[in-house]
Write a structure and sequence with these properties.
alpha+beta, globular, Alpha-Beta Plaits
C-alpha cells in the first residue's frame, strides 16, 4: 500500500507563474525529503474536454508517495523538511496564495500493457480529478465507483497510468488548508495532445454515462490538466 500526500498551490490570478529558479528550489526541497518512494511535480496546462471545463489549473501541485503513514507525516510535522515550502519568499508574485493538502491511499488500476516505456519526447500530462463533496452513503458510492469506473478509464487510448485515491486519517503542523475530498483519481498520458484526444474519444462518452449512474453525492467532480515531471521514480 502507498500513502500519497497531495499538495496544491492556487492563486486568484491564473496567469501568475513562478520564476524558474523558484520552481527549482521547490523541486530541490522535494528531492531532499526523507523516505519518499516517488514524487510527481505538476505545472498548469490546458486540454479540451468534451464534457467539462473547470477553469484554470492550479499554479503548482505535488504528489508525494511514502511506504507508510508515519513517513508521510514526518516531513509535515514540527521541523519537517516540507515546512520550507511554506516560506513566503518562494511565492513572491503569486497573489492570494492558497496551499491545500491531503493524505490518501493509492489504488493502482493501470493495465500491465500500459506500463511499457514511453517513446514520446513531449512532457507527460496528467488529468487530476477530485470529488470535493459527500456521498449520501459513502460505502455504496465507493463500491459502485471502484467496481465500474476505473475499468472504463483504463481503456483510454494512450493511457500510461491510472490511480484512485481514498481517504485516511493523518496529522500535520504546517498550517496549510487541510482538505477532505472524498476521493481523487489521476491519469497520466504521454502529452497534452494525447490527453486531449482521450477526452474527446468514445471512451470519454462511456465514462460520462457511467458517471451519470453514480450513487447520490454532492459537489460533482473537478478536473485539472497538468504538465507532469517525475522527480523521483517509484522505488
Amino acid at each position: 500500500m502507498s500513502f500519497v500526500h497531495f499538495v496544491t498551490v492556487q492563486s486568484s490570478d491564473p496567469a501568475a507563474q513562478l520564476a524558474s529558479e523558484k520552481i527549482e528550489q521547490i523541486k530541490n526541497i522535494v528531492r531532499a525529503t526523507p523516505d519518499l518512494s516517488r514524487a510527481l511535480f505538476f505545472l498548469p496546462t490546458k486540454a479540451r474536454d468534451y464534457y467539462t471545463d473547470d477553469g484554470a489549473s492550479p499554479s503548482l501541485a505535488l504528489q508525494l508517495y511514502y511506504k507508510n503513514i508515519e513517513s508521510l507525516e514526518r516531513p509535515i510535522c514540527d521541523m519537517g523538511n516540507l515546512q520550507a515550502i511554506g516560506d513566503s519568499k518562494l511565492w513572491n508574485g503569486i497573489p492570494d496564495l492558497r496551499i491545500s493538502h491531503q493524505a490518501m491511499t493509492a489504488r493502482d488500476y493501470t493495465l500491465t500493457s500500459a506500463r511499457a516505456a514511453s517513446n514520446s519526447t513531449e512532457t507527460l500530462c496528467s488529468y487530476l480529478v477530485h470529488y470535493p463533496g459527500q456521498a449520501e452513503d459513502f460505502n455504496t458510492w465507493l463500491n459502485f465507483y471502484l467496481d465500474h469506473h476505473p475499468q472504463i478509464l483504463r481503456t483510454f487510448e494512450g493511457l500510461r497510468e491510472i490511480e484512485v485515491y481514498t481517504r485516511v486519517d493523518w496529522r500535520d503542523t504546517l498550517g496549510w488548508d487541510r482538505v477532505e475530498y472524498m476521493q481523487r483519481n489521476r491519469l497520466i498520458f504521454d502529452s497534452v495532445s494525447a490527453l486531449e484526444a482521450a477526452l474527446n474519444s468514445p471512451v470519454r462518452h462511456k465514462s460520462r454515462a457511467d458517471f451519470e449512474q453514480f450513487p447520490t453525492f454532492t459537489g460533482s467532480n473537478i478536473h485539472y490538466p497538468m504538465l507532469t515531471e517525475e522527480l523521483l521514480a517509484d522505488t
